[in-house]
Amino acid sequence: MTSQPTSQARSSQRRTELAGFLRSRRARITPEDVGMPPGLRRRTPGLRREEVAQLAGVGVTWYTWLEQGRPINASVQVLDAVARVLRLDATEREHLYRLAGIPFVREPVSDVEIVGEEILGVLATLDPLPAAVYNARYDVQATNATYRTLWPMTSLVERWERNVLYKLFTIPDCCSTFVNAREELPWMVAQVRRSYGRHVGEPAWESFVELLVKESPLFAQIWASGDVAAPGRRVKIFRHIEIGTVNLTSMSLSIDGMPEHRIVVYTPVAEEDALRIERLRAIDDPMVGCEFHARHLSEILADRTNGKSETPSAYFADASRSLTRGATGN
After folding, report:
1. What is the pLDDT along the chain (330 residues), one digit of tens a residue?
2. Most exposed of 1, 54, 201, 227 (fewest Cβ within 10 Å)?
3. How many angstroms separate the CA atoms of 57 and 81, rounded?
4. 143, 101, 127, 118: which is closest to 10 by C-alpha?
5. Strand order in the sheet with 234-240
6. Which ranges of the chain would DSSP assign to H, the alpha helix?
7. Distance (Å, rounded) from C-alpha 70 to C-alpha 222?
8. DSSP one-letter code for 68
9. Is the CB of residue 62 less than 8 Å from the CB of residue 72?
10. What is the DSSP string of 300-330?
11. Alpha helices, H only, 156-258
């Protein structure tokens, strides 16, 4: 029976892998790629360590230690700078953060960087059926036009907030569009719990669970149940202030080359559901929110342009206060 590696041994192995990864990425970037003169007598291909440090705005000694696998701390901002210099794509950046033990990649990346042009084309072809790409945590990675019409806030907030569970568990009940949430939320959490089993101890996953447990007593209660489930066909019921209730059947489709990602397609249950979606698509400036707090989408976009945007948590906290004042007559 073989013994499991200790936490210290795993940390050391991760740092060794990080060092090798950085060296390999540095070797593929030439001075010409970053606007520097080629210089003379280069013993190895690619940039020198001091050149990466200079371009990233970090100390040469610090970067050297990072590449040597020494136990040093790396901040989000510093890793962002290194990733830009080394021209890491979305997958490589995620790998860099995981090896460095950083929970979140704060810098937004575009949908095409995450899923690629081909998958975006598939989503567009599925239109007018709402469709999105989710990862195993229900992060919204990419969407098509009808999905964004039904749930516009998924493309307006910071990328780290584009998570279905985060939204469903942190907004007040009045502003939720999910009619049968009581039946569906435990099943969705059970899916995430099943995937979590493959990622126990990973900073991004642990931070995600910790955030939701802190923000939502209901999530904490469901999570504590320990239930697990696999993705499958479900009927989800949504409501919209301008078109009423829409019944949709969700179906998950796996994606070759993107483990733990899936395309979820929402099909109208009846003809009247499809007609309601078409009505919504025809509205130039739809309302967003519940009957107490609905605003035109153009107003929300204008606020963001003028620097008045708030995080969803702040917005809905204010909405809850407004609802309380209305109920008490104050």
Report:
1. 455 566 677 777 888 898 899 999 999 988 877 777 766 666 667 888 998 988 888 888 989 998 888 888 777 778 888 888 898 877 788 888 888 887 655 455 678 878 889 999 999 999 999 999 999 999 999 999 999 999 998 888 877 789 999 999 998 888 888 999 999 999 999 999 999 988 887 767 888 898 999 999 999 999 999 999 988 899 999 999 999 999 999 999 999 888 889 999 999 999 999 999 999 999 999 988 888 888 999 998 888 777 655 444 433 333 333 333 233 233
2. 1
3. 8
4. 101
5. 140-143, 131-135, 261-268, 244-254, 234-240
6. 7-27, 49-56, 60-67, 76-85, 90-100, 111-126, 145-150, 164-170, 181-196, 203-215, 217-224, 271-281, 297-305, 312-328
7. 40
8. T
9. yes
10. HHHHHHTT----HHHHHHHHHHHHHHHHHT-
11. 164-170, 181-196, 203-215, 217-224
Q: The pTM is what? A: 0.65
316's tokens? 């809905």
Which residues neighbour 123 within 8 Å (Cβ) at sequence distance 6 or greater? Answer: 131, 132, 133, 142, 143, 144, 147, 263
How far, CA to CA in Å, does 276 sit from each of 154, 239, 246? 20, 10, 7
Q: Is 100 exposed, middle or buried, given 0-12, 13-18 or 19+ CB atoms closer than 10 A?
A: buried
Question: Token pair of 285, please?
Answer: 């400036």
